[in-house]
């Protein structure tokens, strides 16, 4: 990569950690217990990259026959089961993540997480993986009024890095994350997870790579 960056912004779910498969498994396994019919892998995939608020709003619309009380309970139970799995250390870092973080630390390039997830979940994953010291800060869904694709979370990450948008690079896997970075004027590299890049992602991304191993090599050049 010809351009050098002074700060790197990491998405979390599906980019830094292999969490999307866990979310999918938890939701699809528990949905039938609450009368929620049709919550399968295909349904989950249609909502990848959305904030919890957007996802829950979809539940109340798409599964109205289950009733609000059942959906409310389903949401709380899925949170609890997800947290249990996170606390148990059942989530892997994505391939190349630790090596990339090591390289950036050696180069004295500050890193920050900008995730639409809850802060407590981010803290658990970062702690369990032993990578807390690699990040100067974390921006979570609780720090912003508007979730991705709104650029607010990326703008806050840039501000906390103490840099200009043009000096930062964001690593993302979802269309909403790409839109957020693009809207904030931050270059973005896409590392696909469950979904392959669509034409909009191809157009807006600086590059699309296979894994964080490729990002490490890209930033070395």
Description:
The protein has 221 residues and is α/β, with parallel strands linked by helices. The chain has two domains: 7-18 and 92-219, HAD superfamily/HAD-like (Rossmann fold, 3-Layer(aba) Sandwich), CATH 3.40.50; 20-88. The protein is built from ten helices and six strands. It has helices spanning 20-30, 41-46, 52-62, 68-87, 97-106, 119-129, 152-161, 175-183, 199-204, 212-220, and strands spanning 7-10, 111-114, 137-139, 168-172, 187-190, 207-208. It has a six-stranded parallel sheet. α1 crosses α4 (68-87) and α5 runs parallel beside α10. The mean pLDDT is 95. Pfam families: HAD_2. This is HAD family hydrolase.
Structural key phrases:
221 residues, Rossmann fold, six-stranded parallel beta sheet, 10 helices, 10% strand, PGP-like_dom2
């Amino acid at each position: 990569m010809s351009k050098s960056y002074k700060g790197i912004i990491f998405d979390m779910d599906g980019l830094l950690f292999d969490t999307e498969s866990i979310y999918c498994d938890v939701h699809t396994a528990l949905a039938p217990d609450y009368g929620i019919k049709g919550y399968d892998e295909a349904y989950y995939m249609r909502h990848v990259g959305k904030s919890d608020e957007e996802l829950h709003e979809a539940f109340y619309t798409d599964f109205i026959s289950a009733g609000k009380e059942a959906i409310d309970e389903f949401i709380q139970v899925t949170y609890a089961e997800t947290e249990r799995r996170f606390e148990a250390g059942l989530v892997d870092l994505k391939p190349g993540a630790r090596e990339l973080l090591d390289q950036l630390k050696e180069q004295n390039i500050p890193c920050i997480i900008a995730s639409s997830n809850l802060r407590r979940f981010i803290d658990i994953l970062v702690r369990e993986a032993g990578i807390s010291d690699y990040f100067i800060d974390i921006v979570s869904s609780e720090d912003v009024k508007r979730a991705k694709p709104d650029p607010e979370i990326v703008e806050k990450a840039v501000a906390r890095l103490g840099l200009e948008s043009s000096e930062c690079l964001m690593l993302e896997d979802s269309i909403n994350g790409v839109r957020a970075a693009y809207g904030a004027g931050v270059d973005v590299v896409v590392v696909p997870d469950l979904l392959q890049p669509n034409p909009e992602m191809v157009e807006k991304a600086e590059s699309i790579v296979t894994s964080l191993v490729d990002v490490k090599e890209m930033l070395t050049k």
